[in-house]
Design brief:
Low-confidence stretches: none
CATH superfamily of the largest domain: NAD(P)-binding Rossmann-like Domain
Structural class: alpha/beta
Oligomer: single chain
Bound molecules: NADP nicotinamide-adenine-dinucleotide phosphate
Strand content: 5-15%
Number of helices: 13
CATH architecture of the largest domain: 3-Layer(aba) Sandwich
Largest sheet: 6 strands, parallel
Strand order of the largest sheet: 3-2-1-4-5-6
Distance between the termini: 53 Å
Radius of gyration: 20 Å
Order of helices and strands: EHEHEHEHEHEEHEHEHHHHHH
Number of domains: 2
């Protein structure tokens, strides 16, 4: 198939390389064009704009940062909407606002272009290994057409409902994981203050009911007080904004999410916005007198 891939950051490089390796014809574009080189070296065509990347493509994947970025890539003057053929499918895999997603799908629909929202979980490891969890919203026929491409990038691909449902599912994912990051930071800080061997503690807990992806993959960051990417604090903070806005619309109480969002405000203000989100541990360590 002819695939366009827009957004070659922490996640997009691995995802686009996997599509390329599966034998598809891929054209790529990134705002900072330098980042296209790694994928072009493996055989992708470089496009000067999302519009050019979309010309002739059957599927266009977007993996950029935030809602305004997806709007620019999809609907902007040099956006996908001006290059994509009728019947083509935009799969937005970024994490953005469900309401903005529905509006974009409407604008694309007027030009005969389909849209799926397909945000992901699983980090750069999942992106590189093709093992992401992908939560998809949109029309069933479009989902069926896109599935072979989604299955290259993910191990669990679930059609959860109509357009926007993928983004709401991802908001739920971020609500749940924010509590996990916070409680992993709290528990591990307690262990350090008690003078325990933390590698042994993590191994012991990972065998039981409190095991989690966060503890397994990011717990050691809190122990070392070093937070390599990963997933930026700024991006997680953006996701919690989406969750809190959606909760406001639906009249839902999210106390832990609101608390973690406030901790992240402080991390960003202190210059840690580009750390991995496990840097929530910084706040707990500092408050506990470890640093
Ligand atoms: P990232 O490293 O910041 O990469 C985003 C990429 O999109 C950058 O290369 C950026 O280009 C490009 N971009 C932004 N606006 C653009 C535009 N208007 N035109 C063309 N390219 C544009 O972010 P990421 O970590 O890969 O995350 C991407 C999305 O996936 C986000 O919505 C994030 O919330 C979500 N996500 C991330 C993870 C994770 O663990 N990292 C996990 C799940 C979901 P520049 O270099 O010019 O800025």
């Amino acid at each position: 198939m002819k695939i366009a891939f827009i957004g070659l950051g922490t996640m997009g490089v691995g995802m686009s390389l996997n599509i390329l390796k599966a034998g598809h014809e891929v054209s790529v574009h990134n705002r900072t064009r330098e980042k296209e080189k790694a994928v072009a070296k493996e055989g992708a065509r470089r496009a000067v704009s999302p519009r050019e990347a979309a010309e002739g493509a059957e599927i266009m994947v977007t993996m950029v940062s935030d809602t305004p970025d997806v709007e620019e890539v999809v609907l902007g003057t040099d956006g996908i909407i001006h290059g994509a053929p009728r019947g083509a499918i935009v799969i937005d895999m970024s994490t953005i606002s469900p309401a903005a997603t529905r509006k974009m799908a409407q604008a694309l629909g007027q030009k005969g272009i389909k849209m799926l929202d397909a945000p992901v979980s699983g980090g750069p490891e999942g992106a590189n290994n093709g093992t992401l969890a992908i939560m998809v919203g949109g029309d069933s026929d479009d989902f069926a057409k896109a599935l072979p491409i989604l299955e290259i990038m993910g191990k669990t691909v679930t059609h959860v409902g109509p357009i926007g449902a993928g983004q709401i599912t991802k908001a739920i994912n971020q609500i749940i994981i924010s509590g996990t990051y916070l409680s992993v930071a709290e528990g591990l800080t307690l262990g350090m203050k008690a003078g325990l061997d933390m590698e042994k503690v993590i191994a012991a807990i990972n065998g039981g009911a409190a095991s989690s992806w966060v503890l397994h993959n990011r717990g050691i960051n809190v122990v070392n007080n070093d937070y390599p990417l990963g997933f930026r604090v700024k991006l997680h903070h953006k996701d919690l904004g989406i969750a809190l806005q959606t909760a406001r619309e639906l009249e839902v109480t999210l106390p832990v999410t609101a608390f973690v969002e406030q901790i992240e405000n402080g991390l960003i203000a202190s210059g840690y916005g580009d750390d991995d989100v496990s840097a929530i541990g910084r706040a707990i360590r500092k408050q506990s007198g470890l640093d």
